Amino acid sequence: MSVETTTRAKVRWGLLDVIVVVFALIPVLWIASLSFKTPATLTDGKFWPREWTLDNYRTIFSTDQFVRALVNSIGIALIATLIAVVLGAMAAYAISRLDFPGKRLLVGVSLLIAMFPQVSLVSPLFEIERQLGLFDTWPGLILPYITFALPLAIYTLSAFFKQIPWDLEKAAKMDGATQGQAFRRVIAPLAAPGLFTTAILVFIFCWNDFLFAITLTSTERARTVPVALSFFTGESQFEDPTGAICAAAVVITIPIILFVLFFQRRIVSGLTSGAVKG
Amino acid sequence: MSVNATPAGAQVSAEAERPTGRHATVPAQRATRRAKSPLSGNKKAERRLGWLLCAPAALVMVLVTAYPIIYSVWLSLQRFDLRFPDQREFIGLENYVTVLTNEFWWTAFGVTMLITVVTVAVELALGMGLALIMHRTLVGRGIVRTAALIPYGIVTVVAAFSWRYAWTPGTGYLANLFSDGAPLTERASSLAIIMLAEIWKTTPFMALLLMAGLALVPEDLLKAASTDGATAWQRFTKVMLPVMKPAILVALLFRTLDAFRVFDNIFVLTAGGNETSSVSMLAYNNLIRGLNLGIGSTMSVLIFLTVAIIAFVFVKLFGTAAPGSDDSERR
Predict the structure, then answer these.
(1) Does residue A237 lie within any of the structural domains?
(2) B142 and B259 within one domain
(3) Which residues of chain A does B301 touch, with a Cβ-Cβ cutoff of 8 Å?
């Protein structure tokens, strides 16, 4: 490395680090701070709360509106993630291990979908789902989520699968393991980290979506939290919804923070491995 | 790593064998195939397995995108307002004339283009800096990477609310930064805040893609350049940038197309007020608020075409460096 490891260099890098960390964290801290403010101090314009309260959290968890949305968000994101990872793993296995015509076509198609403007699907999907009775249901959201998560899943997983030393499987079988044992004891443990990382990335994608959730739902039946948040605003006219919105926002940020804290390395490797490959 | 598992190898052999046709399975070839792949006894079985494994994913992707897009073209050729369903009829390209001569459409188009160009340019610069920091930093590398992932992971709507309240007079810590007015009620400042929110959210993603490129820069080369007296700037422009070019182009393409879809931030920050609608916002308003499927679909098709043109220009301009053309040989 050309950078000399002197104290001055360390301080310079440290300073840059601090700037990055502060810049990344301020909006998150701000919304958390707002969620702990009492209604009286909400509009004091201070960054930190002067009086702390948990009332905003009590409020949202006592309303059906938020709890339903949270259940919808978790259920829809988990199911979509599970299906996308299973389908993606099958396709990625084929892409990285098997030889068949049409492979490049599949890679090309998933690339096109990754670049696809999702808003273009909003009008036709709205009409198609209305006709099929999928509008405002869980499957109605799960389907587009799987579709747009698949390119991500396929790219990340094939990058992971290509790094697995598949010869170990052969070696295990030579040592007397059955096909099933070779898969369970050798290949599955090697593939698990890749599957797990992909699942996190896909979950974050589904958890984040706003466009499909707001166009393909109309009631609490399938409305997810990001959409419910934007509706908090209009509904409680007599009460300022800011505190409630912030509390709900903090609740749906918690899983993201946990993922990032515990799996930072995995997320970075997953995103970059998929990226270098294209 | 076994030889047959490398992407390039698999890809090349697939290419080489395609011309021989589906039926031509030379015994010798079959033998090598058997030796190479422990799963399939012969090529046919391998092909069938490959198709079988890919079919579900391919089917879902095509059913949920290709069919609706075609349907959307069909809808765009009709007068179809859900409030007046009995007036539905085929009107050819009339919707396109309506949209393309509408000043709201062009305003939204301009706003979208402006946001796309400005945010992507700023993100490229900041992202490069962040990538260098994440790649090279001597202290607290883990902390920086963790912090940088938070904007990437956080729900866009949540971040948008945070920015909205930050700029709301009375509530926010930023509201009185520039003037006593309400920044989110004026066009220029609203657009600036939308862009700020976008840049905050997506710079880490750009940086991660660029970091992947940085990892490909050989240390020896940098050291050699340094020994030969190259300055830091020269090392950056003459050594790192050329090696990183493919990664930069991929990052640019993906972020450009992504930025063009801007919706969540505008929805929460301004709801499209004061002429800050993007094309996505406008299409949404025509569909959900206006319930006009014909016009909404016309906008959908136009947005799709615009994105296709941007992608095409990227691929044409940068040729083989673009993704899709050589996605397996990149490494």
Answers:
(1) yes
(2) yes
(3) 120
Q: Which residues contact B55 (CB under 8 A, 6 or more apart)?
A: none
Residues of A within 8 A of B133 (CB-CB) are 13, 16-17, 20
Residue B3 structure tokens: 């030889």
Residues B40 and B121 in one domain: no
Q: Which of A67, A56, A62, A57 is nearest to A220 (CA)?
A: A67
Name the residue among A123, A163, A204 with its Cβ closest to that of B293. Answer: A123
**A13 and A133 fall within a common domain:** no
Sign, CA dihedral A261-A266-A270-A272, equals positive
Last residue of a domain, one of B25, B43, B76: B76
Shared domain check, A82 and A37:
no
- Does B51 contact A at CB distance below 8 Å? yes
Which residues of chain A have a CB within 8 Å of the CB of B200?
Answer: 23, 27
- Chain B positions touching A166 (Cβ under 8 A) are 2, 5, 38
Nearest to B287 among A123, A162, A165 (CB): A123
CB atoms within 10 A of CB A222: 25
Q: How far apart are CA B64 and CA A67, in angstroms?
A: 29
Closest CA to B329 of A104, A161, A112: A104
pLDDT digits (tens, 9 = 90+) for B230-260: 888 888 888 888 888 888 888 898 899 889 9
Rounded-to-integer distance, Cα B299 and Cα A54, Å: 45
pLDDT per residue over B41-98, tens digit each? 578 888 888 898 999 999 999 888 888 889 889 888 988 888 888 788 888 888 898 8
Q: Is residue A58 part of a domain?
A: no
| ipTM of the modeled complex | 0.89
CA distance linking residue A26 with residue B197, whole number of Å: 12
Those of residues 144-183 in B touching chain A at CB distance below 8 A are 144-151, 153-159, 161-163, 165-166, 170-173, 175-176
Determine, for residues B222 and A17 on separate chains, whether the beta-carbon distance falls below 8 Å: no
Residue B292 φ then ψ, to 5°: -100, 95
Does residue B221 lie in a domain region? yes
Q: Tell me which residue has tokens 């800011």.
A: A242
Sign of the CA dihedral running B84, B85, B86, B89: positive
The whole domain housing A157 covers 63-277
* Nearest CA distance, A147 vs chain B (angstrom): 5
Q: How many CB atoms lie within 10 A of CB B86?
A: 5
| A120-176 tens-digit pLDDT | 888 888 889 999 999 999 999 999 999 999 998 998 898 888 888 888 888 888 888
Residue B242 exposed, middle or buried by CB count within 10 Å (0-12, 13-18, 19+):
exposed
Q: Work out the minimum CA distance from B199 to partner chain A, whole angstroms.
A: 11
